[in-house]
Amino acid sequence: MAIAQTFSDHGVLSEEVKHIFPQTDWCWIVDPLDGTTNFARGLPLWGISLGLLYQGTPVFGYVHIPPLQQSFHGYWRGNSGLDLPSGAFLNHCPIHTSSENPSPNHFFNLCARSTSVMNQPVPCKIRMLGVATYNLLTVAMGTALAGVEATPKIWDIAAVWAIVQAAGGVWTPLEPEPIFPLQPGKDYSQRSYPTLVTSRSELVSVFLPLVQSIHL
Fold first, then answer.
1. Contact by Cβ (8 Å): 62, 89
2. Whole-number Å distance between alpha carbons of 38 and 107
3. Contact present, 197 and 164 (Cβ < 8 Å)
4. How many CB atoms lie under 10 A from the CB of residue 67?
5. Cβ(96)–Cβ(168) below 8 Å
6. Distance between CA atoms of residues 36 and 42, nearest Å
7. Where are the strands (E) in 37-157, listed by range?
8. Which is it for strands 87-90 and 70-75: parallel, antiparallel or unpaired?
9. What is the spatial distance between Cα 133 and Cα 149, in angstroms, rounded to a whole number?
């Protein structure tokens, strides 16, 4: 693997191969195909993602959506203390979340396991894209005001966690335990991380009551 050859002291966690978080300061989390059903059925919306974690927390994310020729990346220093660049980018151009208010002309993205939200009054149009990374990246790029994923795995969110926050978005876990830092020696193959992403903090109170009804 190119990562192992280039960064010999980095660990790797992958949906396809390695599920145990390693005892290393640096770790790449790789999802070689997000949107498997879309890909298998010929729907041209799927992606490849790589998240780089430092001491268990993402500091860099990269997601490539080949059918759309879109490549996202972003840096999130958080509390890492690292001297990193800042910002989120789409095809190397800066992106930022929307500052607009919800309306019927704005989007709220659901996943396949969050459709119960539609039983309530929703202040935006609903979209369901079938790709966890792209679902949340549309918030980062200002296309959608919010998005929810009910059962994403760690490889679905590691890269976008950095990009979304670098773009100004707010990441709200839908359960009390924090997502990061990941713990060395733990198997992450079955763990899900229900998540709400909003374009800014003021909208958390708008969308959180809707998604709290999701059966997780």
1. no
2. 21
3. yes
4. 13
5. yes
6. 10
7. 47-54, 57-65, 70-75, 87-90, 93-94, 107-110, 125-128, 146-149
8. antiparallel
9. 9
Judge residue 110's burial from the number of C-beta atoms within 10 Å of its C-beta, 0-12 exposed, 13-18 middle, 19 or more buried: buried
Distance of CA 141 to the CA centre of its chain: 13
Residues 110, 151: Cα–Cα separation, whole Å: 11
Structural domains in the chain?
2-211 (3.30.540.10)
What's the rounded Cα separation, in Å, for the pair 112 and 119?
A: 14
Summarised one tens digit per residue, pLDDT across range 179-202 is 999 999 999 998 999 999 999 999
User: Does residue 2 carry a pLDDT above 80?
Assistant: no
Least trusted range by pLDDT, from 110-119, 122-131, 207-216 = 207-216
pLDDT in tens, 10-48: 999 987 776 899 999 999 999 999 999 999 999 999 999
- What's the CA gap between 154 and 92, in Å, rounded? 25
Non-local CB neighbours of 79 within 8 Å, separated by 6+ positions: 57
| Environment class of 35 (CB within 10 Å of its CB; exposed 0-12, middle 13-18, buried 19+) | buried
Give the N- to C-terminal CA distance of the chain in Å, as an integer. 35
